[in-house]
Design a protein that fits this description.
about 55% strand; alpha+beta; eight-stranded antiparallel β-barrel; 10 strands; about 210 residues; about 15% helix; Lipocalin
């Protein structure tokens, strides 16, 4: 009897190990929630001024999170929210103008949101995120080219598992009804966007 049990021990233990491995693989294949680190987030916009040179600026207040599966390269959902009054171009008079009715109308529309609707991988670490951008009370789709720069545990401070991303997009501001100075060419219609940010794995990690 003992000999029979010893004979069966190896395949049983092997099967148990396989089941544990499959269980672990299934767990790591789930979507996990990542929260944008507002201390390591930059979003630069660029727009032409009378055709001479681009004016560059950024939004200083942003928050967001998204659900991502690294193994399947699946982005399920996500949202970024910018505080429109936090616009900054290193020129107070211009910033006040941007917050006014001609541009962002920050008193009536304090937030600009981008909600993810689709994601299509274009490479091992690249893809196109499609989302709805809501600004000035209007919502239109925007494509954003994204690159995953690094995914690892942070080496200092919080030491959380962190994704590092860069992204780029181009849009026409007039599509959202922001038409000030477009017709006379004083301010360009095309806006170039560039993002760089880190996103940390939520402490609970998994979606409910």
């Amino acid at each position: 009897m003992k000999q029979i049990l010893e004979t069966l021990k190896a395949p049983v233990m092997g099967l148990l190990g396989l089941l544990l491995t499959l269980g672990a693989s299934q767990a790591t294949a789930e979507l996990r929630t990542f929260v944008v680190d507002d201390e390591h987030f930059s979003m630069m916009f660029e727009i032409q001024h009378i055709g001479y040179a681009p004016v560059m600026g950024m939004f200083e207040e942003v928050e967001g999170q998204f659900q991502y599966n690294e193994e399947t390269n699946e982005l399920d959902s996500g949202q970024l929210t910018f505080k429109s009054k936090s616009v900054y171009t290193n020129h107070k008079k211009r910033d006040d103008h941007l917050r006014g009715d001609d541009f962002l109308n920050s008193d009536e529309f304090p937030e600009i949101t981008f909600k993810v609707t689709d994601f299509k991988p274009t490479g091992e670490k690249t893809g196109v995120v499609t989302g709805n951008l809501t600004m000035l009370g209007q919502t239109h789709p925007v494509d954003v080219n994204v690159t995953l720069n690094k995914a690892a545990e942070y080496p200092i401070t919080h030491e959380k598992y962190t994704l590092g991303m860069t992204a780029e997009a181009t849009l026409k501001r007039s599509q959202w009804g922001m038409t000030y100075a477009v017709e006379n060419g004083l301010v360009g219609d095309t806006v170039k966007l560039r993002f760089g940010f880190e996103a940390n794995l939520k402490s609970d990690g998994w979606l409910n």
